[in-house]
Write a structure and sequence with these properties.
Layout: E1 23-28, E2 34-39, H1 60-74, E3 82-86, E4 100-104, E5 114-123, H2 126-132, E6 148-156, E7 170-173, E8 176-177, E9 193-194, E10 210-214, E11 218-220, H3 227-232, H4 234-247, E12 256-259, H5 265-276, E13 280-285, H6 288-297, E14 301-304, H7 310-317, E15 325-330, H8 336-340, E16 344-352, H9 365-369, E17 373-376, H10 382-395, E18 401-406, H11 411-422, E19 429-433
Parallel strand pairs: 12-13, 12-15, 13-14, 15-16, 16-17, 18-19
Antiparallel strand pairs: 1-2, 3-4, 5-6, 5-10, 5-19, 6-7, 7-11, 8-9
Helix pairs in contact: 4-5, 4-10
């Protein structure tokens, strides 16, 4: 590490707290992105005695980075864990794209009822892209990014007797908090949140080497999955499961289901779940290559949604004995209602888990007259998460991986994963292996 100090000299491997309260060290890492290393050498001072309002007052995450740097400074042979966040940047709201920011942190210690998980892989979601664009509420510049993580339990905190069996076991992080089992939605919306990059969850995010989590906020990972495949599953698997199984009302053999925007993680997971349940699956995409790949996975057919007459083309693909769609699972919004009303059976269902094309959708009178139902679907409960993982285990489903990057400190390469997502290049999940 390249160390830059004031003129004060270290004594007995410590900088006297009476001489300086804080040193800022800027280090260049191989990817040429800076890490701000804040060293608070007044750490020995009781927290209650620090001046209110002074610069030495720090958040929990800042204190962790401070202590981590004290250790790394005087023990250069020690490898410190990393945490990947975003860095605040001024600019017009429409132009904001927060840069990634790598920190050194302390290895956490599990408290009562907690497990310490050594993360081995984490996956991106569109939510993370929205956070970088400041299109998501309660953004935090200190909380690690990413909701989806695979890791191994390396330590069990006090009071976790019921979770002792998880020690040294591979687990998946539950991506959201505050939703136990209610099929209609979170029991208390004011306490519902998604981990990674936001204020309500503080240190909770998958883009770090170690994480302490509540013992009930992990599930054993199916043994047939690799770390990358495990990390790819939580958010997209849960979202797809609820949108298809809980909300569409048509997750049954022989039903005709349309999945829009094939290539993204949720759409692909919906396709895989539908096929495993015996449904006839159809897809839309802007890319014929992606449609061809979906057909190789088992889709009955697919259409290019940029073609104005795609509903007519899709109609011709439906089986003669069931010449209609039973349900649509959609993550784009836009004109999906007007485009699919003629295709859907009376009382058909559109299960919508996202609106990437805009914040509103057009509702038409023909949809009303045909008794079409539009159902919103957001992630899912802990109970649905458990059901989804058991289904993946039973059917030995493997999430589709588009591309991986090795190393949480390879920030430029991770930025490239975000570029893939922005350009809609991916066919499957984008994963960081640690």
């Amino acid at each position: 590490m390249d160390k830059s100090f004031t003129s004060h000299e270290a004594k007995d491997n410590m900088i006297p707290t009476t001489l300086i309260s804080q040193i800022v060290i800027l280090q260049r890492v191989p990817n040429q992105l800076p890490i701000d290393l804040f060293i608070d050498v007044s750490k020995a001072m009781p927290w209650s005695q620090r001046r209110q309002g002074s610069r030495v007052r720090q958040s929990r995450q800042e204190r962790s980075r401070t202590s981590a740097l004290n250790i790394a400074l005087w023990n250069p042979s020690i490898i410190m864990p990393h945490s990947l966040t975003i860095r605040q940047k001024k600019g017009k709201a429409s132009d904001i794209y927060y840069p990634l920011y790598l920190h050194l942190v302390l290895k956490p210690t599990p408290g009562p009822g907690e497990l310490l998980v050594k993360l081995e892989a984490a996956a991106l979601n569109h939510r993370d892209l929205f956070i970088r664009k400041h299109l998501y509420p309660d953004i935090s510049f200190e909380t690690p990014l990413l909701s989806d993580g695979y890791g191994v339990v390396v330590e069990v905190g006090p009071g976790c007797a019921s979770s002792d069996h998880l020690l040294h076991q591979a687990v998946l992080l539950t991506p959201c908090r505050g939703w136990k089992s209610d099929p209609n939605g979170p029991e208390d919306y004011s306490h519902f949140s998604v981990i990674g990059g936001t204020e309500p969850n503080h240190h909770l995010g998958a883009a770090q080497n170690y994480i302490c989590v509540d013992q009930f906020e992990v599930e054993p990972c199916p043994r047939h999955l690799s770390p990358a495949e495990g990390a790819a599953l939580p958010s997209c698997g849960l979202t797809a499961w609820r949108a298809l199984v809980t909300k569409s009302g048509n997750a049954e053999p022989g039903r005709n289901i349309l999945v829009t925007g094939i290539g993204g993680g949720v759409a692909l997971q919906t396709l895989q779940f539908g096929l495993a349940l015996g449904c006839n699956m159809y897809v839309t995409s802007s890319s014929q290559e992606k449609i061809d790949k979906a057909r190789q996975l088992g889709a009955k057919g697919g259409v290019i949604y940029k073609n104005e007459n795609w509903p007519t083309t899709l109609q011709k693909m439906l089986p003669a004995e069931r010449h209609f769609l039973d349900a649509v699972v959609d993550g784009a919004g836009g004109n999906i209602i007007t485009k699919t009303t003629a295709l859907l059976k009376p009382g058909g269902i559109i299960s919508c888990y996202g609106m990437t094309m805009g914040p509103s959708m057009e509702w038409s009178m023909p949809a009303v007259l045909k008794n079409i139902e539009l159902r919103g679907s957001t992630l899912g409960s802990r109970s649905e998460f458990r059901d989804m993982i058991n289904f993946v285990k039973t059917k030995e489903i493997r999430p589709i991986i588009s591309r991986t990057v090795k190393g949480l400190d390879c920030v430029d390469a991770i930025d490239g994963l975000f570029d893939d997502m922005k350009a809609a290049k991916q066919f499957g999940k984008l994963v960081i292996e640690m």
